[in-house]
Design goal:
heterodimer; A: 303 residues; mainly alpha; MetI-like fold; 71% helix; B: 287 residues; 2 domains; 75% helix
């Protein structure tokens, strides 16, 4: 790439290869984004069968979004659910990844275990939620099982208690995503030059030391990737609580996430409020990802 | 002997660590598989049997439940085919064009690159749901409601897949190789298709799976676009089942429907898993 004249001749191909991405991005994401922002400044909803608006109302939608107070509850719900899911997920994935890639440990049946832990990720979230809904319903198999083994005497209402309902949602998400994360992290761990591990072995380092002093620092780019995608995914949490609670966010809206709230507005065609909520979500996402970029020092890689 | 002693002093012995690892793995595997086992058992039981409590032994009503479901109101076959078409096309378009985009950024030096690369990293953070409102409006303006096009074509612009491909290229696609191809007289497009794509195979395999799965699972966007019964994908049908007054439902049918959405994927996955895991392993050896 140092010979300038040659480089210029080839480099027009850079634009050509970028073209499909740019065209599709502009049409299906950039334009909708501007339409969304634009709509957030308009009053536009159905009152019974009557269409109100669209009338320009400035920031009124934002105002009512915050003054109604629901937004804080749903933001808290979403974050609580994400943390409940992400913390065990990343610990589990790092642990399994380290074990699988540890050449000294030489675990047998690795292929079986990898196959099994990745399996839940392939499961359709809505079908999985429907399954959990039936399994954990008041008269469902889990309750019968727990009664049969004498663990409880009467059915435990999993979906009527905040803790258990949230626990189910977070647990399902964790179950569905830890395999994916493990595979990504493991791929990164196995990419680490094995001579580093051999050298540390000669120096008498323990597995824990190797993990914290060699594996983790070298894994940073992939950890950043995993964390960013998980954060984005966490804010998008929708399918599982939506199906599990049939869109109600029960009990007492403690499992109602931000996207479920958005979905409600979209289905009731309250486009003004949906727009304001979307813009808000966009800002939250942007701020959170900026924090992650800063904390993990990703700016170093940008060059 | 000295090394053995050393290990005991500095941390848990290898043997102990191995035993702990196996126990944890078995417990985790149990939690991954248990639900599907129960699902299988329950799909074989009749409504009456299901009401009478849990058992670990399958019954013989699988076929009856299945026939009842197929002759019921849910268009399950259409759902399966629709889901398959959308997910497969998304996966193909997504990995091909994401690799192409990553290649454009990785292999060429052009004026706008300084602007476009950070731009794509920035938009990677934007969830699709955030632009859903504008997306619905666009789709209805284009008269593409109840069409698969708005669900498939956007897969071409997938910043997350692009990011993965770009990372992979940084570690395993030497620019000298592209130079060599040029010296041999290979055209740029030819180089991309014949040299870059095969080298990217492990990354492509991983991302194709991820893309297929995320589209297979996708409920939010299709539910907003597809309204006609015959056009609906499986997740929408499941949601419909959930919204129905399920207490009156034949629970055997409900379980068969869930099994129907889950087990084909599990079977295909079990067949392909060797290549999936291998692909991941291959990709990392080079890294």
């Amino acid at each position: 790439m140092k010979k300038k004249s040659k480089a210029v001749r080839y480099n027009k191909w850079g634009y050509i290869f970028l073209l499909p991405f740019i065209i599709v991005y502009v049409i299906f994401q950039l334009i909708p984004m501007f339409t969304t922002i634009y709509n957030s400044f308009f009053e536009n909803y159905m009152s019974g069968l009557k269409q109100i608006g669209p009338n320009f109302v400035g920031l009124k939608n934002y105002n009512s979004l915050f003054s109604q107070g629901d937004i804080w509850v749903y933001t808290k719900n979403t974050l609580v659910l994400w943390i409940m899911c992400f913390v065990p997920q990343i610990i589990l994935s790092l642990l399994l990844g380290a074990w699988f890639s540890d050449t000294r440990l030489r675990l047998k049946g690795q292929r079986f275990f990898k196959t099994v832990i990745y399996l839940p990720n392939l499961i359709m979230a809505s079908a999985f939620s429907m399954l959990f809904f039936t399994l954990f319903s008041d008269g469902g198999p889990i309750n019968s099982l727990l009664i049969q083994i004498g663990f409880i005497s009467e059915p435990y209402k999993f979906l009527s208690n905040t803790g258990s309902a949230r626990g189910l949602i977070a647990g399902m998400n964790c179950l569905m995503w830890f395999g994916n994360t493990t595979i990504l992290l493991m791929a990164g761990m196995m990419g680490i030059d094995t001579s580093l591990f051999e050298a540390s072995e000669v120096d008498g380092a323990t597995a824990t030391q190797v993990f914290f002093k060699i594996t983790l620092p070298l894994l940073r780019p992939i950890l950043i990737y995993v964390m960013i995608t998980s954060l984005i995914g966490g804010l998008q949490l929708f399918d599982v609580p939506q199906i599990l609670t049939n869109g109600t966010g029960d009990p007492m809206r403690t499992t109602m996430t931000l996207i479920m709230f958005l979905n409600k507005h979209l289905f009731s065609k309250n486009y003004g409020m949906a727009g304001a909520l979307s813009v808000l979500l966009f800002i939250i996402t942007a701020v959170l990802s900026l924090i992650i970029f800063k904390v993990t020092g990703n700016d170093k890689r940008k060059g | 002997m000295p090394s053995e002693h050393n290990e005991l002093k500095k941390g848990l012995g290898l043997h102990t660590r191995r035993v702990i690892a196996y126990i944890v793995l078995v417990v985790i595997s149990f939690f991954c598989l248990f639900w599907f086992y129960v699902l299988f058992i329950n799909a074989t039981r009749s409504n009456g049997e299901l009401q009478s409590g849990f058992t670990a032994i399958p019954s013989g009503n699988l076929v009856t439940n299945w026939t009842n479901l197929v002759h019921g109101t849910l268009p399950v076959w259409n759902g399966l085919i629709n889901s398959l078409i959308i997910s497969a096309l998304c996966a193909v378009l997504c990995v091909y064009f994401s690799t192409m985009t990553a290649y454009a950024i990785h292999a060429y030096d052009f004026a706008l690159k300084r602007f476009i690369y950070p731009f794509i990293l920035m938009i990677m953070m934007i969830p699709t749901q955030v632009t859903a409102l504008g997306f619905i409006k666009l789709v209805s303006n284009m008269k593409l409601e109840d069409s698969f096009i708005p669900l498939i074509v956007p897969a071409i612009a997938a910043p997350v897949t692009f990011f993965y491909m770009k990372q992979y290229m940084e570690s395993s696609l030497p620019l000298s190789l592209i130079e060599a191809a040029r010296i041999d007289g290979s055209g740029e497009f030819h180089t991309f298709n014949m040299i870059v794509l095969p080298l990217m195979k492990p990354a492509i395999a991983v991302q194709a799976i991820f893309t297929f799965v995320s589209n297979w699972n996708n409920y939010f966007t299709p539910a907003l676009i597809l309204h006609e019964d015959k056009k609906k994908t499986l997740p929408i049908l499941i949601a419909q089942l959930r919204a129905a007054d399920w207490l009156k439902f034949d629970m055997g049918q409900v379980y068969v429907m869930i099994a129907f959405s889950i087990f084909p994927v599990i079977i295909v996955y079990l067949i392909l898993s060797r290549y999936i895991v291998q692909g991941v392993a291959l990709g990392s050896v080079k890294g």
